[in-house]
Structure formats: C-alpha cells, structure tokens
Amino acid sequence: MKLLAFAASSSKKSINKRLATYAGSLLDDAETEILDLNDYELPLFSVDREEELGHPQLAKAFLAKIAASDALIISFAEHNGSYTAAYKNLFDWCSRISNKVYDKKPVVLLSASPGAKGGESVLAVATASMPFFGASVMATLSIPNFYQNFDLEKGVLTNQVQNAKLIAAVETLK
Predict the structure, then answer these.
(1) Domain 2-171 is of which CATH architecture?
(2) Using one digit for the tens of pLDDT, what is the confidence trace for 64-88?
(3) What residues are paired with 34 via a beta bridge?
(4) Which end of the chain has less neighbouring CB within 10 Å, N or C?
(5) Rounded distance, CA 131 to CA 118, Å?
(6) How many other C-beta atoms are found inside a 10 Å radius of the C-beta of residue 104?
(7) How far apart are the C-alpha atoms of 137 and 166, rounded to whole Å?
(8) Could you tell me the residue ranges of all domains in the chain?
C-alpha cells in the first residue's frame, strides 16, 4: 500500500506533521511518504491569478501525489477554528484543477494542538467537507494536550488510550 501523510500546516515545528509521521509509521505493510506543505507554496489563490497563471505545476504535482497513493493521513493544525492559510490556499488551487481533490481515496483525518480541545473545530470542518471533494473518511481523531501526550524525542504518542485510538483509526486504511 502506498500511504501519503502530511500535516495541513506550514510550520517547520508542526506538531501535526509529527503526528502524521507517527501515524504513518503504524502500518507495517505501507510504503509511507511524508509530504511537507512548504514544498507546495503557491501565490494566494484568486480567479484573477488563475487567469494569469493557469494551473500551477506545484498544484498539479500535489494532485499527482494523491493520485499515486492508495490512502492518506492528514493531520490538521487549527488556526482560528479552521484550516491554516497554507493548506487552504493549496487546496483552493487544487480544487480548480479537479473538484475531487482526494480522488476517492480512503483518508484518516487527525488533528492535534497543545490545548484541551486538540483542534476539534478544524477536524469537524474537514470531516464535514472532505467527502464533497472525493475523500472517503474512514476515521477521525483529535489529540489534545499534545506536549503531555507525545514524546517529541522518540516521536511516539505516549498516552496509551490515545495511542490505541490512533492505531485503530490507521488500521481502517488496510
């Protein structure tokens, strides 16, 4: 299985990238590729820019990565209750090329934050909207109080209850 995992964040210190990376490592039989949204930075989307630029190669490349995968893990950072600007901009460009951005792939949606809600708001937004864009949402999980529940040095989720939930969520991709 070709598994594509990424954080919907451009932070170089993204806890969601750490979570997506760890989650991707939980499937032994998967060939996991971790993407960095910083590799897909595009001008701010507008119809005027689209008329001027057409469809940028980086958006096409991102869609090609999705198309070449069998399943996805996406971990969402939350900015003001919604998507990060970096993710939303890339998504907007991609959706102009194909409104079925996620190409009917099975997807596990995650979120993490240092706070008690763990990015629940953005996870709810993503869970509700992604099926309209071709995602088959298999499972969702929010990890609250990330720094108390994740060992940054070892790169593993240390909260056993949350870890069991994450393993169960990722196994839905098999």
Answers:
(1) 3-Layer(aba) Sandwich (3.40)
(2) 999 999 999 999 999 999 999 999 9
(3) 5
(4) C
(5) 22
(6) 9
(7) 14
(8) 2-171
